[in-house]
Amino acid sequence: xxxxxxxxxxxxxxxxxxxxxxxxxxxxxxxxxxxxxxxxxxxxxxxxxxxxxxxxxxxxxxxxxxxxxxxxxxxxxxxxxxxxxxxxxxxxxxxxxxxxxxxxxxxxxxxxxxxxxxxxxxxxxxxxxxxxxxxxxxxxxxxxxxxxxxxxxxxxxxxxxxxxxxxxxxxxxxxxxxxxxxxxxxxxxxxxxxxxxxxxxxxxxxxxxxxxxxxxxxxxxxxxxxxxxxxxxxxxxxxxxxxxxxxxxxxxxxxxxxxx
Length: 260
Description:
Layout: E1 2-5, H1 20-33, E2 37-41, H2 54-71, E3 76-80, H3 84-92, E4 97-100, H4 109-117, E5 121-124, H5 142-159, E6 167-170, H6 179-187, H7 189-192, E7 200-201, H8 207-213, H9 222-234, E8 239-240, H10 245-259
Parallel strand pairs: 1-2, 2-3, 3-4, 4-5, 5-6, 7-8
């Protein structure tokens, strides 16, 4: 899954795709480099970020989504949003998936939209929001708490009419987790992968990689991110969400030859 951030405040330093031309070029590069899904986000979810609202999010998103859809009619496009209004419009404009980092906690109506449209739904474990998440990292057992949290949100999604075969799990690395907690989750992906749901892991360029490798600039964390992708191959994770598609694709090809 290749990331396209249409935001002015992306943590990963790639949130510069304010024009549909820039986003279109990025999408083409991602697809050529091996991305199987394009994930477009117009609302930053990094620590410290503020919610901009659905109207602003749609203003940022619409032209780029339409341009990418028209240029790549066969591509799988995911839209990273927790607003039901944005999800509804995105699907109308041709998005195939909805990627909700709040798993319906912010705007429960999003689950009704997903149920009605019968599209894949990435359901992420998270706590709080961009302002509060760093203060919500206390767990009894972070791996089990994430696992049972995903179970609980999945049950809620099914109660809203979402079919189990629509659901994709994301353990939410970096969302209300410390560096060590992220590593614990990566070391115990077998539990997250033990259910029947496909698993998506998004570690690319995140803060915990920078803290471990002592790399302060997010766009310089390519090697650390690729190592996490290799761990995901070993754990039989179904998909990784990344900024650096070309480099990660190479790492995955090599890792598959070692572990599969």
